[in-house]
Every structure is written in structure tokens, then in C-alpha cells.
Design a protein that fits this description.
mainly alpha
Length: 261
């Protein structure tokens, strides 16, 4: 179990950072003229700092996975390894975010940086998926359902974070989060079918069921409650974020467990 912790830390925290940056590429983070006194609109760089902090925590997970921090530098010297490619894309995303913080303090994040960040974030998600898809000797990971486990999960978590922090786009991203939560039901079932197809000894069904409820059913319920006026938008945003992150983490714990069983 302990050997999974670094992988979960990287894929969840790095994933939520990548997903949020990708989603924010569709939003103008520049300071608009005459903007209302809303904290995020006034200082959109705060959102980037949150993403940068999440990415940093994810990279710490990579260092824990390698056992010794200096091994990370050695690993980067081998471009053919998937962990090196994960490192390249993660570092590239970090550099874009640092630039966004530096340039966005006064007038907001430049549009070209949000678009570039979205492209790099998508690349990071795809490379992470490939790292497990090509894992030798673990047939349960070598299937197409591995990609949505990471890509869909990252986008859902990122959209939920945007729903909380991007004040003037909250409803939009809350709806997107709920929609992606519904897709997560399909993702969980698809990976369950992939597990069953290779006759894995590990019983993945409980992880599928719990993930579907936490990341799929409950966020949609929170979204519906917000539409009906039973939950304030901010409370609904917090609930969706917590539930989507937790449900995604549960699915990935099961993902790693079934591969290491």
C-alpha cells in the first residue's frame, strides 16, 4: 500500500493542477476594465498560485516514488523513460505557471500564457496515461480505459477547482464538473470491464462502486441542489470539488492496487 502513496500524490495533485490549467485556457484571466470587487477577478494570479502549489505537491510525490531526490535528476537524463517524460511535461507546466504569476500580478494572466498552459497541461495528462498504458508486465493497465481514468479524472477535478475559484464563471464550471462527474460513471465501468477482461485476482468492483457514487452520483446531486436553490453556489462548488477529488482518488487507488496485486 505504501508504494502507491507517491503515485496517488502525483496523479491526484499534479492532475488537479493540469486539469484546472486546461479548463482555465477557455477563460480570459486578464484584468478586465472596471471589474467588480471580486477577489479572483481583482487578483486572478491567485488561481495560478493554487495550481502551482498543487503541481509542487505532485512533484514531491514523484521524489518520494524514486526514494532519493537526486534520482529525479538522473531520471531526467533518460528521455526514453516515461517517468522522465512526466518530469519534462510537469516542469514545463511549472515554468508556464511561474511566468503567469510573474506577468499576471498587475493586469491578469496574458491570454497566450493561459492557452500555452492548457496545451502543456493536456500533454502532461496524456503522457501520464501513456506511462501506465505501456507498463510492462501489468496487462490490466495496458488497455484503452487507462486513458480516461487519468484524463477525464484530471479535467473533472480541474473544472471543479475552477468552479470554486473563478467567481464569474462558477455556474459554467459547476455545470461542466457535474457533466464530467456523470462521465466518470462510464469511466469507472469501462475500467472495470478492462479489469475483468484480464481476469485480475484483485476485486476491483467495490472500488468501482464507491468511485461511481462519490465522484458521479453525489456531485450531480449537489449540482441539482444548487439549481433548485437548496445550496448556495459557493457551498455547491466546494461540495463538488471535494467529492470529485475524493472519488477520483478512490478510483486511482483501486487502479494502482489492481496493477500491483
Amino acid at each position: 500500500m505504501t508504494e502507491m502513496i507517491p503515485l496517488i500524490v502525483f496523479t491526484v495533485f499534479g492532475g488537479i493542477a493540469a486539469g484546472a490549467v486546461l479548463c482555465s485556457a477557455f477563460v480570459d484571466l486578464r484584468q478586465p476594465e472596471g471589474a467588480p470587487e471580486i477577489p479572483f477577478v481583482k487578483k486572478p494570479v491567485f488561481f495560478i498560485i493554487v495550481c502551482l502549489a498543487a503541481l509542487a505537491v505532485g512533484l514531491l510525490g514523484t521524489l518520494l516514488h524514486l526514494g532519493q531526490p537526486l534520482r529525479f535528476l538522473n531520471g531526467l537524463s533518460n528521455p526514453a523513460s516515461m517517468i522522465s517524460q512526466e518530469g519534462y511535461w510537469s516542469i514545463a507546466l511549472g515554468l508556464v505557471l511561474v511566468a503567469a504569476v510573474a506577468m499576471g500580478v498587475k493586469k491578469g494572466v496574458p491570454r497566450f500564457l493561459t492557452v500555452l498552459g492548457g496545451i502543456v497541461a493536456l500533454g502532461m495528462m496524456i503522457v501520464t496515461s501513456f506511462a501506465y498504458y505501456f507498463a510492462a508486465g501489468i496487462p490490466v493497465w495496458n488497455g484503452g480505459a487507462t486513458f480516461p481514468v487519468f484524463v477525464v479524472g484530471d479535467i473533472a477535478m480541474g473544472a471543479a477547482l475552477c468552479a470554486l475559484l473563478i467567481e464569474d464563471r462558477r455556474t459554467l464550471f459547476l455545470n461542466v464538473s457535474a457533466g464530467l462527474a456523470a462521465v466518470s460513471l462510464v469511466v469507472a465501468l469501462a475500467f472495470q470491464a478492462q479489469v475483468a477482461s484480464v481476469h485480475a485476482a484483485f476485486d476491483f468492483m467495490p472500488w468501482t462502486a464507491v468511485s461511481m457514487i462519490v465522484a458521479g452520483v453525489l456531485p450531480i446531486a449537489a449540482w441539482a441542489a444548487q439549481l433548485k436553490g437548496f445550496l448556495a453556489p459557493r457551498i455547491a462548488s466546494i461540495a463538488v470539488l471535494v467529492l470529485v477529488v475524493l472519488g477520483t482518488a478512490i478510483l486511482r487507488i483501486g487502479f494502482f492496487a489492481v496493477g500491483m496485486a
